[in-house]
Amino acid sequence: MSLRSSLRAIWIFLIILFIVKLDFVSTRDKCRRCEDCLQPTHDNCFCERISRHNGSNGEDVILCKNVDPKFWEIPILQNIRSISFEETNIQNLTRKYLINAVFVDDIHLNNTNIEEIQPGSFTRFFSTKTMHLQKNKLSKISSSLFHTLTQLTELDLHSNHIDFIKEKAFYWLHSLENLNLADNKLSNLSSALFIRLKNLKTLNISKNSLTKLESNFSPSQLTTLDISYNDIHELPENLFTYQTNLKVLNISKTDIGNLNLTIFKNLNQLHTLSMHSLKLKSFNLKDFVLLPHLKNLDIHSNNLKFVEDILNFCPLLEYISIDGNEFLCTAVESMLKNSKTRNVTIEYTPNYQNHNIEGIQCAKELQNMVNVTNKSLTSKHVQNKTVQ
Ligand SMILES: *[C@@H]1O[C@H](CO)[C@@H](O)[C@H](O)[C@H]1NC(C)=O
Ligand SMILES: *[C@@H]1O[C@H](CO)[C@@H](O)[C@H](O)[C@H]1NC(C)=O
Ligand SMILES: *[C@@H]1O[C@H](CO)[C@@H](O)[C@H](O)[C@H]1NC(C)=O
Ligand SMILES: *[C@@H]1O[C@H](CO)[C@@H](O)[C@H](O)[C@H]1NC(C)=O
Ligand SMILES: *[C@@H]1O[C@H](CO)[C@@H](O)[C@H](O)[C@H]1NC(C)=O
Ligand SMILES: *[C@@H]1O[C@H](CO)[C@@H](O)[C@H](O)[C@H]1NC(C)=O
Ligand SMILES: *[C@@H]1O[C@H](CO)[C@@H](O)[C@H](O)[C@H]1NC(C)=O
Ligand SMILES: *[C@@H]1O[C@H](CO)[C@@H](O)[C@H](O)[C@H]1NC(C)=O
Ligand SMILES: *[C@@H]1O[C@H](CO)[C@@H](O)[C@H](O)[C@H]1NC(C)=O
Ligand SMILES: *[C@@H]1O[C@H](CO)[C@@H](O)[C@H](O)[C@H]1NC(C)=O
Ligand SMILES: *[C@@H]1O[C@H](CO)[C@@H](O)[C@H](O)[C@H]1NC(C)=O
After folding, report:
1. Are 244 and 266 in contact (CB under 8 A)?
2. In whole angstroms, what is the distance from residue 190 CA to residue 213 CA?
3. Dihedral through CA 11, CA 13, CA 16, CA 17, nearest 10?
4. Of 35, 53, 36, whose CA–CA distance to 44 is shortest?
5. What is the C-alpha to C-alpha distance for residues 111 and 101, in angstroms, rounded to an integer?
6. What would the pLDDT profile of 309-362 be if each residue is shown by its tens digit?
7. Is 214 near ligand 5, meaning CB less than 6 Å away?
8. How many CB atoms lie within 10 A of CB 379?
9. Domain 52-183 belongs to what architecture?
């Protein structure tokens, strides 16, 4: 190699180094002001409070950490997929926080201590798809708060202190598919509340203080309804008459001790039914209705004595959870026999201390019962299950 070509190589190397360094310095310079991070051309720019980066699916994400709204003078944000707030104590959400984020698809305001949202905070969010307001301290939902969010498909309000929702609060959310109101303080729900939500698929009102439900409170196209953990004493006779699309239903841990099974008679699509901890004493099998698609049934922690024929009413049953009942041994025996021919998984905590059949505790009623103790099962024993 000649001296001349070596020199040329060194030159080229130095020039490249210079360009790289220049670029590095200029990126850093550009990011010195937080607002600049939000320019669409600046990917992966991290500042003290605001960073812009690629989310897990390659989407454009803005993360605002510990922001104070007085620093919140950012340029108009276009084509931003998602904006999240972390370690930010918002309390009083005003337009200022979101004023330039109007084209954002997903807004994460969860865990930010929001107590109130000023009217008009969301008025320009015509294209927003998902709104996460869970785990805050909201207590009232006014009728105008969400009224421009016509593209919203998901609204998560779970784990707030909501005790009042104005009747028309969800009136304009035509696109809403998923509404989570679980873990709040609702004691009543007007049937007008969800009436316009023609696309709603999932409604979660679990863990509130509801004492009754109106028979027409939920839209008929729902596929998932969770009303568990409420103080509901009885269900209106025609609550599910039009819920023919329902696939998942949870009525567990309510005060419904007296359940007339005919209430389920139109639930032809239902595949998962959770009704544990209801203090049910018996199923009136005369009233049992065919649940042709039911695969999962949770009846643990009731006071059931008989369960023999339940499998016959659910021809596709794959899984049944039965702990915490007072079954008679004849019932257990017949269920076990049936489960083996049908290949149904019975979930229970085996206990061989008291009288049992294959670890399922049961009460003897007849003298000439057959002992079927400790035979191997095709059904799985799921041990150490936590019973709620
Ligand atoms: C972010 O993801 C997009 C799409 O996958 C890609 O085109 C872009 O180059 C990424 N930006 C950065 C800084 O990684
Ligand atoms: C929240 O902000 C609004 C508007 O800035 C103000 O009128 C209201 O008093 C504030 N509420 C609280 C509790 O600080
Ligand atoms: C907010 O919710 C999103 C997704 O629902 C989650 O990834 C994020 O960790 C949550 N943020 C906080 C502060 O909990
Ligand atoms: C309803 O919300 C509660 C509380 O967040 C959650 O535990 C439960 O899984 C949800 N139900 C459904 C069907 O997703
Ligand atoms: C519903 O509950 C709220 C809050 O507890 C109460 O103010 C309102 O009067 C109740 N409405 C009905 C119809 O019971
Ligand atoms: C209610 O049951 C459904 C289906 O099994 C389940 O997904 C949901 O988590 C349950 N809800 C609660 C609050 O446990
Ligand atoms: C259950 O409801 C059906 C239809 O409404 C009725 O015919 C039947 O008598 C009821 N059963 C009980 C035990 O109340
Ligand atoms: C029972 O079901 C399990 C899984 O659902 C399957 O692996 C197994 O082959 C089935 N046994 C019979 C006898 O059908
Ligand atoms: C069933 O087992 C018990 C003790 O395990 C025994 O006393 C009883 O005679 C047995 N009954 C029959 C019908 O085999
Ligand atoms: C049944 O199995 C349990 C646990 O494996 C055992 O402790 C018990 O002695 C067995 N009972 C009989 C009658 O074989
Ligand atoms: C059940 O719990 C006991 C005590 O916590 C533990 O020793 C045992 O390994 C657990 N069994 C299973 C199957 O998890």
Report:
1. yes
2. 9
3. -110
4. 53
5. 19
6. 777 788 999 999 999 998 888 888 888 888 888 889 999 999 998 889 999 999
7. no
8. 21
9. Alpha-Beta Horseshoe (3.80)
Question: Tens digits of per-residue pLDDT, 34-88?
Answer: 556 666 555 555 555 667 777 776 667 777 776 665 555 555 556 678 888 877 7
Q: What is the pLDDT of residues 157-213, one digit of tens each?
A: 999 999 999 999 999 999 999 999 999 999 999 889 999 999 999 999 999 999 999
- Pairwise pLDDT comparison (287 vs 267), residue with the higher score: 267
Task: Please give the Cα distance from 114 to 153 (Å, whole number).
Answer: 22
Pocket test for ligand 1, best of 42, 45, 54, 60 (most atoms within 8 A of CB): 54
Per the listing, tokens 């023919």 go with 244
Distances (CA, A) of 354 to 300, 321, 331, 347: 18, 20, 16, 18
User: What is the distance in A from the centroid of ligand 5 to the CA of 202?
Assistant: 24
24 beta partners: none
pLDDT band at 370 (very low <50, low <70, confident <90, very high): very low
Spatial CA neighbour of 219 closest among 186, 254, 271, 170:
170
Binding site membership of 209 for ligand 5 (Cβ less than 6 Å): no
Check the CA dihedral 331-332-335-341 and report its sign.
negative
Q: Is 65 helix (H, G, I), strand (E, B) or coil?
A: strand
Contact 325, 303 (CB under 8 A): yes
Which residues lie below 8 Å from residue 2, measured CB to CB, with a gap of 6+?
none
Ligand 1 in reach of 374 Cβ (< 6 A): no
